[in-house]
Protein 1
Amino acid sequence: MNAAIKLLSSPRFAAGIVIVLILICILGTLFPGGDVIFTSILFLAPLGLFALSTATCTLMRIVPIWRDVRRPEIEVSDQFVQSLPYHAYLPGVTIPQVKRLWKGFRWREELKSKNTYLFAQKGTVGRFGPPIAHLGVLVLLLGVVVGAAYGHVSPQDRIVMAPGESQHVDGFILRLDEFNVSYYASGVAQDYRAKVTLIDSNQVQTGEITVNSPLIHKGLIISLYGYDSNGFMESGKVSWVAFQIKSDAGLPLVWCGALLTIAGIVLSLYLSHRRIWIKESSEGILIGATSNKSSIRFFKIVDEFRAELENLRSKTESRD
């Protein structure tokens, strides 16, 4: 069991699966009719392995993160503070002076033996950026699987019709009114446009379908799949146009997963988790700080605060 968990949580294993999925996607895209591969076990099996690997990585990392954020260790040793990226010893400084000068942090205080300990942190939600992104990937993959399993309208997942022709599609009528192709000056096709009419009971809806702009009706996505290119090149007219009709069963999950993934990435990149430990003794305080990103900027802020404390100590000593 431990070996299986270790394998599933390995970044190399996940990267290998991603490479396999990319190769399968390339094959399915390049070869005619290759899109059927996305509903086959050849694609779904590595997709499931990738989802399992992502879930394992997320679960193994989120528990320590949650424990570290919610129950941080406040009573720390001198060795711990001195091992932090930023640490300094300030003789003659007291905890009340620290709390009075350094505002903006919510301090947690503990008194043990003869020592007082302070701890504060900011940006804790940033630590959860990677797990949120991983969760988004899982939801997105679930949407892909749902779309692959339930996305096609059977048996009319693809229909072919001539201009002016109509066909019944899942309770309504689809009519192809007109089809046009526009070209660049070089002669390369620029855009394909199909003007269609949807007749559903007493409701009539007209619209255009282009390559990147399908028509959606009753949860069905109607998109262009192909056309009689030879006929159009010879006479400027087409004898047939093919449409692909799919349900958007997995589309809400895909959008939700994409938004979660983006949110997780943004949190990971732009929100740093900043932590400060302060230990007081009879001689002064020992201060240590760390940040998972933007550490130079944060350490500069800590250094400015240290300078303020030293100035306050100097003023206090001069009055005495």
Protein 2
Amino acid sequence: MASLDEFEREQAILLELEKSGRVVVAELAVRFGVSTVTVRKNLETLERRNVLRRVRGGAVSSGVTDEGAFETRVRQAARAKLAIAAAVSPLVDHGDVIAMDSSTTAYYLAEQLLDRRNLVVVTNGIRTATLFMEQSDALVLMPGGVVRRSAGSLVGPIGDVLAGRGRIDKGFFGLIGLSVAHGLLDLSAEEALAKRYIARSCKEVYGLFDSSKVDRFGLHSFVATEAIHLLVTDDGIAPATVAEWAAAGVPVRTVRPLDAQESAVGRLPATAVRRATG
């Protein structure tokens, strides 16, 4: 295997854990072409983030049902997410009232909308709210809740805080998984609950996701299939899956992930710049 940097090694370790549930230090050292000391340092870093548990000779999955830290997720499938954001951004006009969740795909979209004037943005994403606050004139509304540190979100039973305040034009939501039977899915019950309350106030709901999410497992539905206006993903999605959603009355728009040249550093979220183009 070609020499990998620290981030790439960590991602490879996490993928192997997702696949087999266990990794072995000696095998990883050979695979990466690095010393066992280096591998142990990588495992120590990942253990501090609570995504694995070190055991004698290697590590096992921590069993935490969480999609991972924002800083990790924002770098995954970055070119696909940037292309999705670029395709969706023309749907938002000056003065619109929009909702965005705490997903990294929504964060990419937020980067594309900073020049929109007089936006009203309802979001439970702390980083998305901060981005709009610091770099735009948007009015940002956060419905409240409990801070979920790993996701950088406010979650929980926000109740009827949005009810009776008027309709939100469009809502943009990332997801952990999706199914025609259950709609858009999340692993976290608290995250799904917050998204559900926000989505109920939206005239149109858009599901934004890279194609790897199609086969992912999700426990909690936050938008039913019949309430989805459009799904937007990259062209890695299987044609049969697109046809299945079309038969359920939900159109799927696919985009081509941007290549390295198109993914200019200036267009990537600041938290992703160093790694996303690697």
Protein 3
Amino acid sequence: MIESPTRDYRYERKFLVEELDVGQVRLMVKRHPSMFYETYPPRVVNNLYLDTEEMDNYYANLSGAAERRKVRVRWYGELFGAVASPVLEFKIKSGLVGKKQSYPFPALRLDENFSQRTFQELARDSDLPDPVRHHLRTLNVVLRNNYRRWYYATKDGHYRLTVDAEMAYYRVRKFENHFINRVLDDGRVIVEMKYEKPFEPQSDRVAGFFPFRITRNSKYVTGIESVYLS
């Protein structure tokens, strides 16, 4: 098990919205009786997802295994070019709760020269803890995705909510990556409500205001199936 500074486990509820556009969803969030307000300006989230040669993380998330994880490098803003401050994240789920382990990752450049070798050299020469660096040697970069995210929280700070839209997925090859072929998933909106364990008893009341269906939607699973299996 990789040891690192870790957030406590928290609940995460995801809602898949297909019948409303992102503007309508955001208006519904603002009209919520719990008085959600925007905590940050909206921004573009970019991810590089990693998995084993056998795609163990994909299959665990696809099956809904009780213990599952995703490994990604995340940054914000520009889609391509120089990435000054990426963050390596291990997102770990145990049943209905999850936590995140985060580490600064070396600056990288996402262009046609990006490859598995590029990533492995960055990881090898990084200041990451030895167990993390050794673990990354067993993984490949398999997917790149990006989406626009809006951030909200209730006035009491007990519940946080994100709204994601304009999702795009790119296959990552072992060698040259021109990132020309992308799959757009801009017809759906993903709403995620996050809260700590003490606030679980009231969560049904907060979530019940939304006419959205709860889902196990995983952007990673959707992306893999979009670019590899379609």
Protein 4
Amino acid sequence: MSEIVIHGVPGSPFLRAVLATLEEKRQPYRVRAMAPGEAKSPEYLALHPFGRVPAFEHGDFRLYETQAIVRYIDAVFPAPALQPSDPRAAARMNQIIGINDWYLFPEIARVIVFQRIVGPALLGLEPNEAAIAAAAPKLPTCIGALARLLGDHAFLAGDQLSLADLILAPQLDYLAATPEGRAAMRGTALSAWLERMVARPSMQATLPPDKLRQVA
């Protein structure tokens, strides 16, 4: 069987999403851990020309972009299925992943999580409160939209685990460890959903490094 190798910076929520997907599929893999600045090295840019993480290798097949990677994993290793067969549930899953990729991560989580957790833990930086204050007002819109989409379902796209849950859970696990994230999620159905997700073996097997968890 071809070896699966995932290149990424430990603690990246996108790396964790890919690893959790592989854990759900019970597929063996190897992580090539990278230092934060290594994503811009010539060697890594040969794998991912945009210098982001993760990058993925399955034998001689190379792939980047988290959505593409997890969809590939789900197609190649079909059980258990992580994409709904119902068109409406599949569309809902895609919508939720889009909320993460276009709004939650770039506009909110990237800023707040870096300032509250990553910067202090890995770089010894003090939080930039002005940057946090600029990002925080956008948080209730994203959390509110996700909570409404979750509704009374067990998972984000319905009653079965999907790629939406595995991509969103690593992001919200970090956000829930910040004062801003806790305040936004308090009293919403997302809090109970996140507790259930974090308790899954796939999430427990892919916890961030101790340094990040201690600051959080």
